[in-house]
Amino acid sequence: MADSPLRILTLNCWGLKYVAKNRVERIRAISNELAKFDHDFVALQEIWVFSDYEHVRDNGLKRLPHSKFFYSGALGSGLALFSRFPIIAASVHPYSLNGQPIDVGGGDWFVGKAAVSIIVSHPVLGQVQVFNTHLYAKGGEDGPEYNRAHRLVNAWEFSKLARQAAELGRYVIAAGDFNSIPSTLPMAVIREYADLSDAWAVVHPMPPSISSPSAMEAVTEFGVSADSPLNSYSAGKPLGPYARQFLGKRLDYILYRQPIRPLQRPDDPLPVLHATECAVRFTDLVPGRTFSFSDHFAVEATLELRPGKPAPEDLRDAHSVWGSAPPASAYLAAPASELSTESLTTAMQALAACYRFTRQRARKELTIFALCIIILVALVVGSPYLPHAWINPIFILFTIALSWLGTTMLYEGFLWGNWECNALMNVIEELEIYKRTLETQSGPH
């Protein structure tokens, strides 16, 4: 039925070709498992291989006839969305910062991590914008916030997109791997500025009174979706202190919010989304195998469509209160939320610290580049005086390695260093303007 609850599932599939273990078997198992559920939206992350996406689409999610595989970056975004309802628009917003080119092991810079979305036409809600995202991975939970500045930039850019969608009169549903536990600054920015409700927190408003939970209780009671001892790929993995203490981390979320717009008629309010169920799925091993479906568990939520409250009687008679038509703000479906002073100050300090660190790193890299040039010149001058012929191959290999190092340091220190500094400065200035606006609005009139 049109007013039936919406069921959403999100899963990081860990599907990087040649790197992810047991990828083919796991994607097939994920597809088979998805076929058992009846969802309205499914958001997948790290599904890098198009044939894997096709297999899930054609076998596991036949009931969701509308889908989109998103392209971004050198290796793709790894993001896909599936919908029961017709897709009328789609978009990709690559994040401006996503690690460093020299961090080959991390790999974030080479992929197109982004905020992607589809706009669907729902028979009751009208336009619904469904987001899927995967934020920058490195950083952890300990230490100063500037270590996670790239993820903070991701969170700010994502928040602006979600808030803009609500301001355009759309319901917003967002899912994905945010690589952040609930208490971190990126999630605070998303909660406060985008005003997105966390389905898990709505359904589980009070923390369980369990002082020493088991691994299964950490999943079922605290929503742990990554680095769980129950996951075969986390069992032998070196974990940080937070994951060891809490038997995993809650990194995967389903978020939602109402639109910000005037109601067409005060006696005909907009429906309200409300989370009634939220659970962690795909916690078992793949049937007949000794490994899990992915290195993350899935998260599933059910959102009810509840009737909104009509405007008060005195507001329905516009002239009795306003003397004319009421202002649009009188009938807002959901008021705008703003960043707290604490979050705003901490974010600006973290970004400024990262800016200073980036400038220092860039200077060091450019110094290394200059040293490489000096050494290469010395090698060219000294090459005719090599005492033995067998030294030539070693000499050539050393020259190639030195040239590669110098070129890399030039790119890292000059091109990428300036790019990163400019991106950080853009966000810092945006937050400064935003802070002045809030101060103006809260000041005396």
TrEMBL record:
One Pfam family here: Exo_endo_phos
Involved pathway(s): Sphingolipid metabolism; Lipid metabolism; sphingolipid metabolism
Cellular component aspect of the GO annotation: membrane
Sequence intervals crossing the membrane: 366-385, 391-411
GO terms assigned for molecular function: metal ion binding; sphingomyelin phosphodiesterase activity
Location in the cell: Membrane
Superkingdom to which the source organism belongs: Eukaryota
PANTHER family: PHOSPHODIESTERASE, PUTATIVE-RELATED, SPHINGOMYELINASE FAMILY MEMBER
Entry similarity comment: Belongs to the neutral sphingomyelinase family.
Protein's UniProt name: Inositol phosphophingolipids phospholipase C
